[in-house]
Amino acid sequence: MTLLKAYYPLPKFPPISLSGTMCQLHCEHCNGVYLGGMLPAETPEALLSTCRKLRVAQAIGALLSGGSNNDGGILNLNVMLDAIRQVKRETGLILNLHPGLLDSATAQALAVDFASLEIPSEETIRNVFRLDAHIVNYLETYAYLQAAGINVIPHVCVYQGDEDRLLQGLASPPDVIVVIVFSPTRNTRMASAVIPTPQTVAGVIARIRVMYPQAELALGCMRPKMYKVREAMEVRALQAGVTRMALPSPKTLQYAVQNDYEIRAFDACCALPEVYEPLARRVAT
Description:
Elements: E1 2-7, E2 15-17, E3 39-40, H1 44-56, E4 61-65, H2 81-91, E5 94-97, H3 104-109, E6 114-118, H4 122-128, H5 135-147, E7 151-158, E8 176-181, H6 198-211, E9 216-219, H7 227-240, E10 244-246, H8 250-258, E11 261-266, H9 277-280
Parallel strand pairs: 1-10, 1-11, 2-3, 2-4, 4-5, 5-6, 6-7, 7-8, 8-9, 9-10
């Protein structure tokens, strides 16, 4: 029987923005829009308070993210390092970090359980992020995090359809790879850009499966929301080899059951390393 792991981040694994709604980059695809859907925690005190409340509410973990600075890192991350360590000591929450770019010293100072690192193309870095950086800088960040003992989960965003090539320079094979999909967003400069087709997304997934046959592949929560496109994309992703999916639609779950998939549900983000699964697995009722 084939296994499909279904992930539901809310309410037990919410995203926290270390910068509130502030962002210096205002990238072409986002423009800070997604920051408004995160819990704001712009100071160390606010982060501690937010995480304490999450623990009282029986949360399992949290995603630490936020707006970017002009160098491609997370705003306020360096001033939060001590608070992040205190959160781990006091709450035991599983912490996932969206690091952006960082250096070796920052990686060594982090007290997070894993990191979700997008590996963007040169075109995306230049034309969407508008950063003076290169893919090698993201691969260096991957290596810095691994050297610090942090499990790094690489993410690639399907847009042109050749994003599998971005994973060729990884320092070592990952345990999990997350595929996300460009989704036009209102109030951004890419609001009218074309959505990748389900076939395009499946092609990227299938090639990653060949490249890293031992890795678990996930279809992440960042993907188009239109029902018919979403459902077709999810089914094609399953057929191409994903074993994890964030927020699968009812039709996708029905398809999985009809095709003899075993479905396991988790209250976490789909990048969750396997070692933490027992803490996040939903108990069947």
